[in-house]
Amino acid sequence: MLFSMRRLIIAIDGPAGAGKSTVAQRVAQELGYLNIESGAMYRALALKALEAGAAMDEEDALGPLAEQSRIELAPAPGGNRVLLDGTDVTLRIRESSVTEAASRVSAHPRVRAWMVDRQREMGQDGGVVMEGRDIGTQVFPYAEVKIFLEASPEVRAERRIRQEGGDCSNGTAVAAVAEEIRRRDERDRTRAASPLVPAPDAVVIDSSTLGFEQVVARILGLARSREMEFPTAQT
Ligand code: DC
After folding, report:
1. What is the pLDDT of residues 127-171, one digit of tens each?
2. Which of 46, 88, 114, 143 could form a cystine bridge with 102, CB 3.0-4.6 A?
C-alpha cells in the first residue's frame, strides 16, 4: 500500500496589514495548494454593489445581489485573477472606493452566509490555503492548521503608508494612521457578525517581530507535521 500526504485546509486570519496575502500566497506555492483570498470575494461583490448603485447599508438589496453573483478565483502566475460574473475585475477591486465599500458590504450576515457557502465549496476537498478574517472560526472551524497573523498598529501603519507611496519618516503621520487602525481593530473585534478574533485553537503569529521568511517557515513547519500525522492510503 502507498501513502500520500493528506491535503490540508490551512486557515490564515488576521487584520489588514498583517501580511496575510503575501504569506498565504507563498505557503500555497510551497505546498502546491490553491490560494483563496476571501477578501477578494467581498471586494468583487462591493464593486458590483457600487456599479448597481446599491445602498451599502441595505442588507435586503445586498443579500440578493450576492446570491445572483458568480465570483471565481482563477489561479494565474503572480496571483489569482478575480472574475465577477465572467469579467476580470482583478485590478478594479483594489481601488480605494472598493476597499471602503467591501468593509461595509461584509458587515451583513446575509452576505456573509452566501460567501461562507461559496468558500466552503471552494475548499472542501483540501489542498487550500484560505486567507481572511473568519476562516478558522466560521468557514472551516475544523481546518487542520489555523493561523492568526497579527502585527502592531505601528508596523501595519508603516506598511500601508509605504504601499501608498508615502513617507514613513514622519512620526506624526505614522501615529495618526496607527490610531485609525487601532480604532478599526476595536470595531472589527467587537462587531456582532463574525468578529475578528483568533479561533481558540489558532496559532497566533506576530509579524511585527518576525521576518517574512520566518513567518512562512513557521506555517510550513506546522503544515508539514499535520500532513504527516494522517497520511491518506492509496491502493
Ligand atoms: O483582506 P481584504 O482587505 O481584501 O478584505 C476586504 C474586506 O472584506 C475587509 O473590509 C474585510 C472583509 N473581509 C471579511 O469580512 N471577511 C473575510 N473572510 C475576508 C474579508
Report:
1. 999 999 999 999 999 999 999 999 999 999 998 888 888 888 888
2. 46
The response to whether residue 39 sits with its C-beta less than 6 Å from ligand 1 reads yes
Which are the contacts of 6, defined by CB distance < 8 A and separation ≥ 6? 126, 144, 226, 227, 229, 230, 231, 232
Q: What pTM did the predictor assign? A: 0.93
Give residue-wise pLDDT tens across range 10-57: 999 999 889 999 999 999 999 999 999 999 999 999 999 999 999 999
Confirm or reject: Cβ of 134 under 6 Å from ligand 1. Answer: yes
